[in-house]
Amino acid sequence: MREAEANYREVLAANPRHTGALGYLGLLAHQAGHSDAAIDLLRKAIASDRRNPEPHYNLARILSDRGRDDEAIVHNRKVLEIDPNFPGAHNNLAALLLLHGRPAEALAAAVQGLLRDDAAGLKTTFVMALRQLDLAAIKRDPNLVQLLVRALREPWSRPRDLSAAAGAILLRSQAMARCVEHQSREGVMRLADMFGATDLDALGSDGLFDALLTSAPVTTMAIERVLTAIRRAALNEIVSGEFENSGTWLPLITSIGQQGFINEYIFDVSESEKAQLENLRADVADAATRNETIAPLKLAILASYLPLHSLSGAETLAAQPWPGELAALLKQQITDPHGENQIRTSIERLTAIEDDVSEKVRAQYEENPYPRWSRIPAETQALPVDAYIGMRFPGAPYKPLGHRAPDILVAGCGTGQHAIQRAQQFQSANVLAIDLSLASLSYAIRQTKELGLTNLRYAQGDILALADDRTFDIIDSSGVLHHLKEPLTGWRRLANLLRPGGLMHIGLYSAAARQDINAARSYLAQQGRDYSVPEVRRLRAEVAGRAPGDQLHNLTNFSDFFSMSECRDLLFHVQEHQFSIPQIADFLRESGFTFLGFETPARNSYLRRFPDDRAATNLANWAIFEAENPSTFATMYQFWIQSA
Ligand SMILES: C[S@@+](CC[C@H](N)C(=O)[O-])C[C@H]1O[C@@H](n2cnc3c(N)ncnc32)[C@H](O)[C@@H]1O
Questions:
Q1: Which atom of ligand 1 is nearest to 464's Cα?
Q2: Where are the domains of the chain?
Q3: Which of 348, 361, 417 most suits a substitution to test ligand 1, by most atoms within 8 Å of the C-beta?
Q4: Chain centroid to CA 450: how far?
Q5: What's the whole-number mean pLDDT along residues 588-613?
Q6: Exposure winner among 28, 49, 455, 614, fewest CB in 10 A?
């Protein structure tokens, strides 16, 4: 390097405007810690050759390291003006724009980048920008749509994170806009008379529509109404034997069937539909028993009202030859649930369940395993724990674990999303995941087997009854402790199982973010309304009828409102506590934990509000931030802590 430096100095002596020499020496100066000199050299390199993107790119990186992000953004843009394919520039630009609270520009940069390069960083920015953008500001751009379909199908994040954005974009298609308008037509009509065959065909062949319906609960009320109306008209038509055009609409109805299973049949069902549904169910069950051919469309419509595994003779149905369009539906509704039933009997029992609240909670999650997910992002690169925490929480007072294969406990793993993510995320991880509910564990085990993961073991157990004989480097308990009779007792039990210097990831409900939920719960309690499937449907119809701004109507802002188990969790849980940041801070102080950081898209806004807290770990400041922005932790407080 010395030799190269000497050579470049010589070159520069002969030609003070030599771009390569200026650029190289600029980078060397930066590495030696002389950033001002580096910036000066790179500016000269730029001035000497205005068509060269490289000095702009390097200057942008140095400026960003120095906290001069606005200037870094300008130079990244310059790079791309000169060479739109310059590797890494879109990625850096998009990430900087997102960091600075400019999600619309970040999304545009990520889209341009992803059209050229499949970088994981660009996918992350794409998803985060879409989640942060005001839905009204999202345009139906064909490149964006094409990437969003991939993001939902591959997927790039949990598909439900993108459900609201996908819904907003779908509403901008002319066919969907007309369907929204026509769904309220009064009277029982044929499907094509209600919506128009062209619009239905357009929906049926819309890749984004299909990707959304088959990946995550639809969280856009207007689209839910359209789907409910299509389903109602299709049922009416097929029961009265009038269905025409059945081949064309099979993919559309099949996707609605998959959506029904994903949202656990939360859509409203009218009295007239109930009678027709009974006829159809009897008709299909009879035909199945007699091994007679059934019209694929009949099966698809039935699947949009009830899970096919609940039909007598479901397995003979699955064994019949069906058109390819039905394959995913049959797997979802017959093969997978059958596999889960078989798994259930062989699940290891780690502890007894004796606590009365644990028993009630178990019963709820046996009926409604939470959440029913279909696809999970494939982690591209498993990281050592230290690298993972270092990247998420730069500047946090973290004591590295060092190189070790981490033993991880996921306490209250539900249907396995978290446990699977942890098993994929950390290098050489060895995960034990426990839950009260055998139905949830069966779902998790089936999905884990399909993904081919072998570093993950599941067992039934109660957090409160866990013995001290096994300890862990990481304990993850998200969305669980607030369902215990005494959450802090459970938290202390888990803390006892953590090795010195070990890490915890905790998710707890925020009282500030759940004010609308609390209002809805007391409204329900006053009227003595309790959980049942018809009650949830009745309540949802009532909520949808309220004007925007009404506290009850605000429930539609929660994505949990759009599937049965999540809606039950949201509004009718048998046991729920809520927390505040000062309460969390007290617990951490009392138990000797260090706070490492919240996992929240609001981190950047917080850093702009409290620029002096560069590690974003001051809980007193976070309490102020939450008071100013009460919906910050609408999903939950999700945070990492470290034991002494
Ligand atoms: C809302 S779900 C969250 C599931 C999962 N952590 C997630 O985020 O997807 C709560 C889960 O905690 C489990 N749970 C509640 N109390 C528990 C306890 N005392 N011991 C073990 N699991 C418990 C429930 O059975 C349920 O599956």
A1: 19
A2: 2-155, 173-342, 356-511+578-643, 513-571
A3: 361
A4: 20
A5: 95
A6: 614
**CATH code of the domain made up of 2-155:** 1.25.40.10
Rounded (10°) angle between helices 197-204 and 246-262: 60
Pocket test for ligand 1, best of 160, 367, 370 (most atoms within 8 A of CB): 370
Contacts of 538 (CB under 8 A, 6+ apart): none
The confidence score (pLDDT) of residue 372 equals 86
- pLDDT class of 564 with cuts at 50, 70, 90: very high
The first and second tokens of residue 126, run together, are 């794409």
CA-CA distance, 124 to 535, in Å (whole number)?
A: 38
Read out DSSP for 229-247? HHHHHHHHHHHTT---SHH
> Which tokens is 343 given?
């798994």
Q: What does the alpha-carbon distance between residue 256 and residue 206 come to, in Å, rounded to a whole number?
A: 13
Q: Is there a contact between 84 and 112 (Cβ–Cβ < 8 Å)? A: yes
Is the shortest distance between the CB of 484 and ligand 1 below 6 Å?
A: yes
* Among candidate residues 498, 478, 503, 470, the one with its CA nearest the CA of residue 413: 478
Nearest to 537 by CA among 275, 273, 268: 268
CA neighbor of 484 nearest in space, from 363, 365, 358, 591:
358
For the chain, the farthest-separated pair of C-alpha atoms sits apart, in whole angstroms, at 94
- Percent helix, strand and coil across the chain, each to the nearest 5: 60, 10, 30
355 CA closest ligand 1 atom index: 19
Q: What is the pTM of this model?
A: 0.92
Query: Is domain 356-511+578-643 in CATH 3.40.50.150, yes or no?
Result: yes
Burial state string for 289-323 with b = 16 or more CB within 10 A and e = fewer than 16: eeeeebebbbbbbbbbbbbbbebeebeebbebebe
Query: In this predicted model, what pLDDT tens digit does every residue of 245-272 receive, in sequence order?
Result: 566 789 999 999 999 999 999 999 999 9
Residue 191 reports pLDDT greater than 90: no
H or E element in which residue 337 lies: helix 336-344
- Tokens at 513, concatenated: 């973010």
Summarize pLDDT for 370-393 with one digit per residue, the tens.
Answer: 888 988 987 668 999 999 999 999
The residue written with tokens 């000199």 in the block is 37
